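name: query_chain
kind: protein
chains: 1
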Amino acid sequence: MSNAVAPLTGPAPGARPARRPAPLLWLRDGPDEVQSLAAGLDLVRQVAREDASEAWLCMIGNGTAHYLSTYAGGDLLAELYAGGNEVYGVVAPAGRVRTSEDTSEDTSAVVDGCWRFGSGADRAAFMAMGCEPVAGRRTTVVLERARLRVEHVWQGPGLLATGSHTLRADGVRVRPEAVLDMSAVPAGRPWGIYADAQLFLANMPGVAIGLAERLLEVLGAGLAPGSAWFAAYAEAHTRVVLARRGLTGLLQSLDGLARAGRLGPFAPALRAEYHAVLSAAYHVCLDAVVALAEACDSRDAQLRGWLSEARVDALTMRPHAAMRPSGTLLTAVPAPQGARG
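structure:
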């Protein structure tokens, strides 16, 4: 089927592009173009067309900036993002905050914990780490990355450049302002700020969408209608377009509510619908990546290497717990051993 492959343009498939500048982030008084969920999705999607690992970090970095902008004080935000610092977070409540017994320093709490999949660990200046509720209130702590140690190195199978290592804190002291109460949205928040914790996930499907779109662009429909390859390509193209448009429409409606000051915490029905749309877009596009990679039988070694990498990245992303569907969207192809969960 090598004659079905369109000529390649731009960076060679499989070639790791030069490290991109730190992505635009949603911060208080930040640039207008990233103060929306739909814009964040597009940003991640465009990065994924060049590099899935970089897009994953863009997604984590932007999601972290969204919720820090909601709950962190202005002085802390200025410190975190000074000088182009990269800041990433782990929302899983795997840490524990306890009262410090040492009053000799300006700290009132000590943090212990072990967080899996600390994406961005190799690049971060600070990490925002989820902790068990304190007095029933959802809590996150912001720690200097240097004060967290790597317990297990992320070795695969895919997205290796994300540095998604297991991170541990053992008795790390934190200042009071770095312990964030995330149980209620503060009054006077800027428009577009996340009013519901699940909005952190809004641009996660952008990684899958962008990766699928890049494969569709590089491979091309090629053969005439009626061929096996054309049918595989056409089905993947249709599914990816529908997934992207459906998710974008939902996020645009939420952006409209936020601009009107009407976006509050989700009612249960809206939360279920929101997660279903995100999960469907995510898995439909990852399935398209796997289908395209397996249907293409080009003899071009460089192309085959790139398709193999894309397939492994897709299978690595597929079982992520945050995008686990409530129905039966996960289909026959198993994830490789060691995939993120």
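note: The radius of gyration is 21 Å.
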